[in-house]
Amino acid sequence: MQPLINELALYDIANVNGVAADLSHCNTPVKIKGFTGQESLAGALEGAELVIIPAGIPRKPGMTRDDLFKTNASIVKALVEGVAKTCPGAILNIISNPVNSTVPIAAEVLKAAGVYDPKKVLGVTTLDVVRANCFVAETKGLDVKDVDVPVIGGHAGTTILPLLSQTKPKVNWSDAELPALIERIQNAGTEVVEAKAGAGSATLSMAYAAARMAESVLRGLAGEDGVYECAYVESDVTELPFFASKVRLGPSGAEEILGVGKITDAEQKALDEAIPILRGNIDAGINFAKGN
After folding, report:
1. Is the C or the N end of the chain the one with fewer CB within 10 Å?
2. The dihedral of CA 233, 236, 237, 239: what is its sign?
3. Read out DSSP for 105-140?
4. Which of 171, 188, 187, 152 is nearest to 267 (CA)?
5. Chain segment 107-153, per-residue pLDDT in tens
6. Are residues 152 and 271 in the same domain?
7. CA 154 – CA 190 distance, rounded (Å)
8. Average pLDDT of the residues in 34-46
9. Ranges for the Lactate/malate dehydrogenase C-terminal domain (predicted)?
10. Are residues 77 and 210 in the same domain?
11. Residue 81 sits in a domain of what CATH number?
């Protein structure tokens, strides 16, 4: 349904042709192609300007995003190797969990191939923003379309840091409201996993968030001014090599990385506590890429 897309190439190791046939019956101008199996990866990536990687196994009750690491890390590594060979200039939107580690893996793969551009490797943390906006609107009785909550840090548990002090429109919080709301934003994925009772993890809300991020990237590619999203990217906002914060999107990807801005003492404390966790996640990704 996105008018900025000319061709949509779908790739997986199985069961792609049925999805491609199904989508191709939608009366939109987008050309749909399906590619099945590892030998067809290059065909799927040929000419791509934006590559979205949501691949991997989903979480089940009792699992953390880190439990997905080994399987999903291998999948992301193989797909990014294909990108390096076939469409090294494409922008990457990496959704596969744990994002805190899979984005560093992608960066290492592209570095090894000599084609790494930090502006073009984006971890998709949009779902955290979508959830924060939704929950704040519910809590305060606001129109959700008017709400914007920046979410920084990473994309797992306590590394997800909603800056509720920077909520737009400006709202006031009681001491009782803040901890419960922050905890819900951080654990919203688990809320869905448990509600599905073993039948999967967040897919529809994640698809919505992924589509929002993809649209923003495409708008940036098209040269539109003032396109901003939060994303997990190579960054010097903190001492960490990767960090999620608001970025300005343009023709070359994340063209400007915004700082954290003014935050409360409680938010600073949460950030300080998240940094060593994020560092461990990042190191795990780098070590995996270099060791495999």
Report:
1. N
2. positive
3. HHHHHHHHTT---GGGEEE--HHHHHHHHHHHHHHH
4. 152
5. 999 999 999 999 999 999 999 999 999 999 999 999 999 999 999 99
6. yes
7. 16
8. 97
9. 125-288
10. no
11. 3.40.50.720
pLDDT at res. 200: 86
- The three-state secondary structure class of 257 is strand
Q: Is the dihedral of CA 115, 256, 92, 2 positive or negative?
A: negative
Same domain, 131 and 161: yes
Helix (H), strand (E) at residue 254: strand 253-257
Other CB atoms within 10 A of residue 78 CB: 13
Question: Residue 291: CB partners within 8 Å, gap ≥ 6?
Answer: none
In CATH, what number is assigned to the domain containing residue 133?
3.90.110.10
Q: 174 burial class (0-12, 13-18, 19+ CB within 10 angstroms)?
A: exposed
pLDDT for 62: 81
> What is the amino acid identity at position 145?
K
Give the domain range for residue 160: 126-279
SS3 of 191-231: the string is HHHHHHCCCCCCCHHHHHHHHHHHHHHHHHHCCCCCEEEEE
User: Once rounded to an integer, what is the mean pLDDT over residues 26-40?
Assistant: 96
Question: Does residue 76 share a domain with residue 191?
Answer: no
Q: Which residues are annotated as a binding site for substrate?
A: 59, 65, 97, 131
Show which residues are catalytic.
155
**Is residue 286 assigned to a domain?**
no
* Average pLDDT estimate for 256-269: 97
DSSP 238: S
Q: Are 47 and 87 in contact (CB under 8 A)?
A: yes
